[in-house]
Amino acid sequence: TFYKLSKTLLLPCAFLGIVAVLFKVIKFEIHYWLWRDDEKPNGTADENGEDDMPLSNPKPCAEHFYHVLQASAFVIIAILIMRLKLFGTPALCIMASMVASREYFSFVGSKNRHQAILVILLAMMSVQGIDNLNTQFNTSGEYNNPHLEELISWIDTKTSKSHVFAGSMPAMATVKLTTKRPIVNHPHYEDAGLRERTKKVYQIYSRKPCEKSWQTLRDMGVNYIIIERNWCFGRSREKCSMPDIWDVEDNKNRGRPSCCSLLFRKVEEGSHVKPFQLAFRNNDYTVLRT
Fold this sequence. Notes:
Number of helices: 13
Distance between the termini: 41 Å
Radius of gyration: 30 Å
Protein name: Probable C-mannosyltransferase DPY19L1
CATH class of the largest domain: Alpha Beta
GO molecular function, one term: mannosyltransferase activity
Subcellular location: Membrane
CATH architecture of the largest domain: 3-Layer(aba) Sandwich
CATH topology of the largest domain: Rossmann fold
Membrane topology: Multi-pass membrane protein
InterPro entries: Dpy-19/Dpy-19-like
């Protein structure tokens, strides 16, 4: 992300804007506190040292300093929670616009020179900016997932609002958003507790005994576990399926059939899926009750 922001020159320009604002604010504060008894910035004093005119702006640049603080807070939040960079990026754009201010960048020379520098800067930013726009404009698609819609409809009509669900993080986000059912894991990767709970849920895709996964889910208070066929059998490349990934973590059970594959085989054969109970199935999703 930092590399992408730097390629468009957004990050360097925002840094320059922040430094310029901080420099002017600090300079004013030093001047104010060191010489406030002798002269009043933006005001006048009589021979007795008392103001004969109130300060029109006792804190110049305060509004810009506020944006510096706000941008800093949003950037910190974006670093901690990457998906919240949607707040940090606009804040950086505001600070980057400071480079066009004569108030802060009059030292570059005349107004014409400053404008020429801005035109060159915008041209440099446009190189990567136009490429980014073309990439976005060429991205097209339509969301259509009838199997997920069928699953959501079943949850809405056939389960209690107090029933707790577990499954893949994308599926859990959809379940929580559309059905308001309690879930034990969701896509908040930055939280260590959620990562640990998600790892426990994903034991269903490991080669551990199904009884152990069932007990783990029971201990977590889960009523239904949603397993997905493509998560169990699909792979983007060799050794990248969920069972293969679990082999790195769980050497002891390497070579055993995965729990999810055993459950899918029992479901297709019509036999019992003990210790689970089959609650729902379609081509993509299978819901087992604990």
